[in-house]
Here is the input.
Amino acid sequence: MADRTLYADFVATRSDRLLRTAYMLTHNWATAEDLLQESLAKAWFAWPRLNEPEPYVRKVLVTTYVSWWRLRWRQELPSDELPEGLLAGDTSGGLDERDAMWRALGRLPMKQRAVVVLRFYEDLSLAEVAAVLGCGIGTVKSQSAKALAKLRVDESIMKELHR
Here is the structure.
């Protein structure tokens, strides 16, 4: 796929779906846009050797997201003061199901979150998820099972809190 004119077509046709994937990983539109932009820039340089660009860009999305998370983790500084409006135990305002799901998804470890997003949101097969994450199908199955179990526990806890 050495023709770089096809790159512009690829970006125009696939960016929306890839942006949604990035958003599912980051849960922040601005960060998702930055993540997609960096991933597409990396794809530009690899373009002449790509036979299937979408799986490549999806893999770059996930690996870049993980590397950003690791960098951010090291750069965060603790603070003695909570930001205004974030009171521990304040459950007023009621969480709707969508917000509760986002929160539960955000509590998953990064690899499990990536598996859930790719497998159930992007509707990729086990083999495709394994290829994107660079692991075996068994790892995808076990990470998926662990993630779904954690999400079920989160759901039952949320139901107990709202009784």
Observations:
- Residues 46 and 53 are 9 Å apart (CA to CA).
- The two ends are 57 Å apart (CA to CA).
